[in-house]
Amino acid sequence: MLSPQELETLKTSAMGAGATHVARIRADEIVVRDDLARLCREGCGNHGQSASCPPHVAGPGGFRKMLEQFRQAFVVRMEVPVESLYSIASQDLFRLLHEVVAAIEKSAKDLGYTRAQAFAGGPCKQLFCREQPDCARIAGGACRHPDIARPSMSGFGIDVAKLSQKAGWGDAPAQGPDGMASLYGLVLIG
Ligand code: SF4
To answer: What 8-state DSSP symbol labels residue 158?
Structure first.
């Protein structure tokens, strides 16, 4: 388990990178739903476009197996103005979310939690490789952005509303009464 000092180190890393809230939960509190993962196939134009999105990821079944190897996780939240999600700035915000969870993952690995694995929101093909003809990993090469691009939680069926509840933040409304919305990420620690 993370010591209080390690916990502080990861929180500092998260807040320094741009998170507004972080919370530690038990890995077995993460809820995975097959129907949520199916939405990627049925409603996302980025389906199949990157190695980090379905059908190229292990999906809910693979994620449940992965979870068996972890005892704790960090839930990450970035509060942003709702209107920013409907502007050109939204791409920057989702890229920042990827950077935040990747920074926490790196900090955890630096502390010795070498299996730490981060997940973000938003398809990395659109966010990082939009101008490229393909995903370099699908084409057989290495990721062009290994330090920041992380798989999206959607493809694994991770229930974000439940993550928010377990983190102690209540439901995850699309828009709060204060005109703010939240983006979420997750880092499995060890
Ligand atoms: S190469 Fe681009 S599209 Fe493929 S996994 Fe990396 S960031 Fe995502």
So the answer is: B
Residue 181 is encoded by which pair of tokens?
A: 């919305």
pLDDT bracket for residue 74 (50, 70, 90): very high
**What CA–CA distance (Å, rounded) separates 102 from 44?**
23
Q: Mean per-residue pLDDT for 163-190? A: 88
Cα 124 to averaged position of ligand 1 atoms, centre (Å): 6
Rounded to whole angstroms, the Cα distance separating 170 from 149 reads 28
Gap from CA of 88 to ligand 1 centroid (Å) = 21
d(CA 175, CA 190): 32
pLDDT tens digit string along 87-101?
888 999 999 999 999
- Local confidence band at 17 (pLDDT 50, 70, 90 cut-offs): very high
Measured from CB, residues less than 6 Å from any atom of ligand 1 are: 50-52, 124-125, 128-129, 135-137, 143-145, 149
**Ligand 1 atom closest to 146 (CA):** 6
CA-CA-CA-CA dihedral for 43, 49, 50, 54, to nearest 10: 40
What ligand 1 atom has the least distance to the C-alpha of 149?
Answer: 7
Q: What is the pTM of this model?
A: 0.94
